[in-house]
Design a protein that fits this description.
Elements: H1 2-22, H2 25-49, H3 53-72, H4 75-84, H5 88-92, H6 98-105, H7 107-127, H8 140-162, H9 169-183, H10 195-201, H11 207-217, H12 222-257
Helix pairs in contact: 1-6, 2-3, 3-7, 3-8, 4-8, 4-9, 7-8, 8-9, 8-11, 8-12, 11-12
Length: 264
């Protein structure tokens, strides 16, 4: 366990150095954060054009949580990038499990997502007349973090399948978070979809976490909120387990046939 934590810590440090090499507080605020805020405003304005405050509330809350999913799934680029740059074999040699090494690569982006989504929750609802139950709403960032962890495990799992096709990493990233935004209750209630598709969405991250946040903001029963958060944790754990198995198979196959050095 000590080796696992040490490798995770150094992976986090390395990811922070890479992140800070490309982002300053100015570029993060005025380029990345502003882009995410504008996206959320776009959907909220659709609700306003429909003349329904209820639609504004629904669309804005959904897209504020979706900000977290966009940042969390960036782990797909970071993980697949290791193989593209030819450093995968060095990471596999780390004194920890392969999954620990990869998880540490995107933790900074997970923090970025929590910061961006929380900022959006503070700034945008007053602009669109969305009422939040303050001071209880101060717990929303914790729920966003739970959603982020689940989405991060999902992104790591997707990355484990895309490792063999590094050139497809951008396609995988865009499809991954667009699937969540489309089917997990961000802009359209999950009840809109047919039963078979609703069953699929129940095993996707963000579905239950977003439902918990919506119930909390609507001051629904605490049992409902906690039950949905518990389901979100379970979904994240399943994606984590699948990622662990997939990474292990990829590394074993790469060692056996020599393709672990592949950087195409």
């Amino acid at each position: 366990m000590r080796d696992q934590l040490r490798v995770l810590k150094h992976g986090l440090i390395a990811s922070w150095i890479m992140f800070s090499a490309f982002q300053t507080w100015k570029t993060w605020t005025f380029m990345w954060l502003s882009r995410l805020l504008i996206q959320a405003c776009f959907y909220a304005l659709i609700g306003r054009m429909l003349g329904s405050q209820q639609q504004v509330d629904y669309l804005l809350i959904g897209n504020l949580v979706a900000i977290m999913a966009i940042d969390a799934t960036v782990v797909i680029l970071l993980t697949v990038g290791e193989r593209h740059s030819g450093t995968l074999s060095l990471m596999v040699a780390a004194p920890a499990s392969h999954l620990t090494v990869y998880l540490g690569r995107g933790l900074v982006n997970l923090g970025s997502g929590v910061a961006a989504s929380t900022t959006a929750f503070v700034v945008l609802p007053p602009l669109f007349g969305v009422r939040l139950p303050w001071p209880e709403a101060g717990l929303v960032p914790l729920m966003i973090f739970v959603v982020g962890l689940s989405c991060y495990c999902y992104g790591t799992c997707v990355a484990s399948f895309v490792l063999g096709f590094p050139s497809a990493r951008w396609l995988a990233l865009n499809l991954s978070y667009l699937v969540l935004m489309t089917f997990c209750g961000v802009n359209v209630p999950t009840s809109f979809w047919p039963d078979w598709l609703r069953a699929v969405t129940s095993v996707l991250p963000m579905t239950h976490g977003l439902a918990a946040i919506r119930a909390f903001i609507a001051e629904g029963p605490a049992t409902t909120v906690l039950a949905q958060l518990g389901l979100e944790v379970c979904v994240g754990a399943v994606w984590f387990a699948v990622a662990a198995v997939s990474f292990d198979r990829m590394v074993r196959r790469g060692r056996r046939d020599g393709t672990i050095e592949f950087g195409g």
